[in-house]
Design goal:
The protein is mostly beta strands. The protein is built from 1 helix and 10 strands, in the order αββββββββββ. A hairpin with a 4-residue loop joins β8 and β9.
């Protein structure tokens, strides 16, 4: 795994702790929870132990742009289609391959190979990385940080 990817995962793990991000199905609204972490924190990512199956609608925003994605997981990998509006490019639709990994902070979904939806043509979109965790108190946390380190809370809705 390259340094950029490791850094994005570390930021993702840290942002989940800092912002107290919860899924859309959680009982409480998003809250801010101050948490400190060592400045040299680096997430350790390993192969996931258990496969994940299902489909989810995800919604998040970065720099005022709202992204809507449909994630379909079929075991240890899956695909995700993301729609958004880019101010200078207009409507965009991107497909990514997603890989399931395990980290000390929860399950990590790493995005790879963003392409224009329905094609194999590379898209300049920056790959997404998600973290999902069930905390010791039973609360759920879901966050995203892309490979550039831009992070956001995520709302998630099961679609099957």
């Amino acid at each position: 795994m390259n340094f950029k990817r490791t850094g994005a995962i570390a930021l993702l793990s840290l942002s989940v702790g800092l912002f107290g991000i919860e899924s859309a199905n959680a009982k409480n609204p998003l809250t801010e929870v101050p948490v400190t972490a060592p400045s040299n924190y680096i997430a350790q990512v390993t192969d996931a132990n258990s496969p994940v199956y299902g489909s989810w609608k995800l919604r998040y925003s970065v720099d005022g742009i709202v992204y809507e994605s449909v994630l379909v997981m079929n075991g240890f990998s899956g695909s995700m289609r993301t729609r958004y509006y880019h101010p200078s490019l207009g409507k965009q639709s991107v497909d990514q391959t997603m890989y399931l990994k395990n980290s000390p902070d929860g399950l990590v979904l790493l995005g790879y190979n963003p392409v224009y939806a329905g094609t194999s043509r590379k898209h300049p979109y920056i790959a997404d990385n998600f973290l999902f965790a069930i905390e010791p108190d039973g609360s759920r946390r879901f966050a995203i940080c892309d490979d550039a380190g831009k992070c956001s809370a995520v709302t998630a809705q099961t679609i099957r």
